[in-house]
Amino acid sequence: MNLDILQQPFPLNKAQIDFYKQNAFIKIKEVLPPKVLAHINNVISDKVDELNTQTTALDERDTYGKAFLQIFNLWTQDEQIKEIMFSKRLAQLASDLMEVGGVRMYHDQALFKEGGGGITPWHADQYYWPLSTEKVITAWIPLQGVPMEMGPLEFAAGSQNILTGRDLSISDESETLIGEKLRLTDCNKISEPFDIGEISFHSGWIFHRAGANTTDQTRKVMTAIYMDKDMILKEPENDGQTNDWKTWCPGVKIGSIIDSHLNPILFER
Fold this sequence. Notes:
There is one protein chain. By secondary structure, this protein is an alpha+beta fold. The protein has one domain: Jelly Rolls, CATH 2.60.120.620. The chain has helices at about 15-25, 35-50, 65, 80-85, 90-100, 170-185, 240-250; strands at about 25-30, 70, 100-115, 120-125, 135-140, 155, 190, 200-205, 210, 220-230, 265-269. This is Phytanoyl-CoA dioxygenase. InterPro entries: Phytyl_CoA_dOase-like.
């Protein structure tokens, strides 16, 4: 499979960049052609099947466990996946949306919501990340179309400025408390299907969730988390951030640029 398109630019217009700046998320259609996406689906699905260690029945897991199977940093496990995750097209989009001079890899993760899988509660990703600024973005890459029945992402547009709930991990509590806060604000909640080849990008502090997968098919999603190439490691504020420091930023000192061997620059102007 020729994957040259992954290294080719995908131009954005000013309206798209302005939309992201205001809302802290954006969905972009036709980023990946169907044939390329089908190949990526096969490669990543095979590796997830190989690495998955989940043996607990779905109905015996907690809310987090029912939300998805989660496997990290596949790029370090497979050369084909490394080529996909090091895509200059995706990294350029991340850099353009954040309006930074370049981006590094923070980490990637496969998020496979099994048929019958539960909701992903309201949360903000950056709760888990020891990163000093908001210049971090997640590319959410469905490996197939995602109808409403499969549980696409739902975004609370503009919620990146709400402080309530930032101290909550993904849980029943975050679903309830953040949901209540959002009902008292004027944030529009955007929940729409994803077409084949459509990708979303969202900031670390925007609140988002996903519905349950009520089909009998797995909702397969790959994600890449990009950060400003000059991102500084901050003092961790919770156990999750301490774990992320040791896991995704090994050897980096607090107050230094996050430039470990796991954080290569993927795009630079």
